[in-house]
Amino acid sequence: MSKDIKLTSLTKSSGCAAKIGPGVLHNVLSSLPKFKDENLLVGFDNNDDACVYKVSDDKVVIQTVDFFPPMVDDPYTFGQIAAANALSDIYAMGGNPAIAMNLMCFPSCIDISIMHDILAGGYDKVKEAGAIIAGGHTIADPIPKYGLCVSGFAHPNEILSNSNAKTGDVLLLTKPLGIGIMNTATKAGLLSESKIKEVTSIMSTLNKYAKECISGLDIHSCTDVTGFSLIGHSYEMASGSDKTIEIFSDSVPIIEGALEYAKMGIIPEGMYNNLDYLKDKFTLGSNISQELQDVLIDPQTSGGLLLSISEKDVKEFLSRTEVFTSHARIIGQVVDKVDKHIVIK
């Protein structure tokens, strides 16, 4: 088969929108036995971004794995985005990635040079992160998929969780929403080349730079916004912290055009899976349009960091982020628990 094949033509769902819905996943995982180990500081029962295992009094290892089918047609760019997405969980936990292993599913019927270009994109992002790739695993599969298993390290005191938000904290987001919707529009052939370039640039930007901006600041909780959507990941933070998060919908950064495509019904399947799980977990202001709700529940691929931060440090954090992005924004606040964990105003 030609090396000019469109990768997205081989998939039904793309990026993080291809993930199994949170409701199904929760039901399966909740029925499994929990492993007990005093050195396992964070496991899969915490709904956190990665596992954390203590290896000494001054060092923990953070481990995560993530892979998905392509959301862009260019193999190199797909490799970059998949790697950036996998690396993100390490940053969200407060660590630095050190070593990665490739995970690849690849159709035997397409040109092997496409595999090379996907891996090259991943290699370059891992190198940018200051980590190394030391191997991996590849299987034949009619639908291409790529990602990484990543290990990073941190001091135990540097670990950030998604369940320690404090009343009075300010909620910050470092990348705009609408990625899943825009990827769906791309697959439908509706986006210009310049718009595709803008969206892929957002997805391929490492959260390394946002994570570096938190040094010395009073960050109470952190997660990255991926397939579970802004509302979904905010819900995990709020429920884990036993707080309510108020989201200021008119302050949320959104990629230009995403609301218009949502209004047209250009919605990834993953949004409906998210909504099915989240529908009774948030309250919505009467002024919130259907398309804005859809964007807030849109599954993101390689989205930004969501941080719960002391109000006194907000200005300093935003000042630091100006060097690499114009998207970082205050989008809400943490308050004492009320009826619902998420209130959208």
UniProtKB/TrEMBL annotation:
Xref: InterPro entries = PurM-like_C_dom, PurM-like_C_sf, PurM-like_N, PurM-like_N_sf, SelD_I, SPS/SelD
Q: Which PANTHER family match?
A: INACTIVE SELENIDE, WATER DIKINASE-LIKE PROTEIN-RELATED (PTHR10256:SF0), SELENIDE, WATER DIKINASE (PTHR10256)
Q: How is the cofactor bound?
A: Binds 1 Mg(2+) ion per monomer.
The UniProt record lists the EC number as 2.7.9.3
Return the SUPFAM superfamilies for the record: PurM C-terminal domain-like (SSF56042), PurM N-terminal domain-like (SSF55326)
Protein name per Swiss-Prot or TrEMBL: Selenide, water dikinase
Q: Which residues are the active-site ones?
A: 16
Regarding protein family, the annotation reads: Belongs to the selenophosphate synthase 1 family. Class I subfamily.
Please give the function described in this protein's UniProt entry: Synthesizes selenophosphate from selenide and ATP.
Give the top-level enzyme category: transferase
Q: Which domain of life is it from?
A: Bacteria
Q: Which GO terms describe its molecular function?
A: selenide, water dikinase activity
What are the top taxonomic ranks of the organism? Bacteria, Bacillati, Bacillota, Clostridia, Eubacteriales
Partners and quaternary state? Homodimer.
State the Pfam families in the record: AIRS, AIRS_C
Record-listed ATP binding positions: 19, 46-48, 66, 89, 136-138
UniProt cross-references to Gene3D superfamilies, sorted A to Z:
PurM-like C-terminal domain, PurM-like, N-terminal domain
Describe the location of the PurM-like C-terminal domain by residue ranges.
166-341
Catalysed reactions, semicolon-separated:
hydrogenselenide + ATP + H2O = selenophosphate + AMP + phosphate + 2 H(+)
Annotated binding of Mg(2+), by residue = 49, 89, 224
Required cofactor(s): Mg(2+)
Ranges where the PurM-like N-terminal domain occurs: 48-152
